[in-house]
Design goal:
Mean pLDDT: 79
Strand content: under 5%
Family: Belongs to the TTC19 family.
Protein name: Tetratricopeptide repeat protein 19 homolog, mitochondrial
Organism: Hypothenemus hampei (Coffee berry borer)
GO cellular component, one term: mitochondrion
CATH class of one domain: Mainly Alpha
Order of helices and strands: HHHHHHHHHHHHHHHHH
Distance between the termini: 20 Å
Radius of gyration: 22 Å
Helix content: over 70%
Oligomer: single chain
InterPro entries: TPR-like_helical_dom_sf (IPR011990), TTC19 (IPR040395)
Number of helices: 17
Low-confidence stretches: 1-46, 55-73
Length: 327
């Protein structure tokens, strides 16, 4: 019993925590009384809190939304393969971003923008602004990202692009996320619902629109979790998971992460059976993946659910395994 409490105390110091796992007073009461959590009668009684795997908005979008933005914004395959100064500079900027060399990436993008402006290359200018916006988004420079995304949106709409176009919906989704991160809840909610409305009638047009539909549901669910609307969050998480499995198959990291989120949300909704089910599925899936990066978090989450249910021995094993794998 004491070992589990020690593990939980160590987990609370980890940067992956979504909510504090257990209040210290709860842990103290738990250890002193040596009884199962569901039998506690202390006024300090509280549920343990689960871990949420770190979520980077830009990386998440890259994982789930497998589109070439170059092609999306008007470049074709031949353009991408050209060794022109503009294309090569853009490729270097993307490479620097992937390597997290953000200052160098920004310098390369400003250079690319000057080249595009000198060549009066509309698509090049558009793509430079889009990459700059994503870079600011990825580094959480939210004010800058918002201004740049608005610029891209204005360029697209000014060129006659329809509001129903995937490019417009995609950028609007990012603007909604920025509003959420800036705690502008009303605008964020309007933005997410607008994106859902626009994508709904065309979600089956092609795989790109179907994937975007899944991403919107995923991001909207994260927003709903933030504002505490658990029933709606579960609906949209389930929809995102369904789309993910349909478009990318069952065995992929994104499916595992969504199962983890479903487990967390079910736990917060006090549906412990569903929470355990989702986390066991996530664990089974994670064991089949080559990348074990997030497996420790899932072990810990399942362990804490079982701890809540009073399954002490298995909970202790899972929490210990989680600590060894990820902490």
């Amino acid at each position: 019993m004491f070992k589990i409490a020690q593990i939980a105390c160590k987990l609370t110091q980890n940067h992956r925590i979504f909510y504090p796992i257990v209040q210290k007073t709860v842990l103290k009461q738990f250890i002193l009384q040596r009884v199962r959590l569901e039998n506690l009668r202390s006024p300090f009684n509280s549920k343990p809190k689960l871990l949420k795997i770190n979520w980077n908005p830009l990386v998440s979008f890259k994982v789930t939304f497998a589109l070439s933005i170059l092609t999306w914004l008007g470049f074709n395959k031949a353009d991408e393969e050209k060794d022109s100064e503009l294309i090569m500079t853009l490729k270097r900027a993307v490479l620097c971003t992937q390597r997290e060399q953000f200052e160098t990436a920004e310098q390369m993008l400003h250079l690319a923008l000057r080249i595009a402006q000198q060549q009066q290359d509309y698509q090049g200018i558009l793509y430079c602004y889009d990459l700059m916006a994503n870079l600011a988004f990825n580094t959480y420079d939210l004010d800058k990202a918002e201004k740049l995304f608005v610029n891209v949106l204005q360029l697209l709409l000014g060129d006659g692009t329809s509001e129903d176009d995937l490019k417009v919906i995609h950028i609007s989704l990012k603007l909604a996320r920025i509003c959420q991160l800036k705690a502008n809840i009303e605008r964020a909610d309007l933005g997410y619902r607008w994106c859902l409305e626009k994508i709904e009638h065309q979600r089956k047009v092609n795989e790109d629109s179907e994937i975007l539909y899944g991403v919107i549901n995923d991001w909207y669910a994260q927003y709903l979790l933030d504002v505490g609307d658990l029933p709606k969050a579960l609906v949209h998480l389930n929809e995102a998971y369904k789309v993910c499995t349909e478009t990318q198959g069952l065995k992929n990291e994104k499916s595992m992460l969504l199962l983890n989120d479903l487990g967390i949300t079910s736990f917060r909704a006090e549906d412990y059976e569903a929470a355990e089910k989702y986390l066991r599925e996530a664990l089974a899936l994670g064991n089949q993946l080559e990348d074990k990066t997030h497996l420790g978090v899932i072990h810990a989450n399942l362990g804490l659910i079982l701890l809540q249910k009073g399954v002490i021995n298995e909970a202790e094993k899972l929490c210990n395994t989680g600590r060894k794998l990820d902490f």
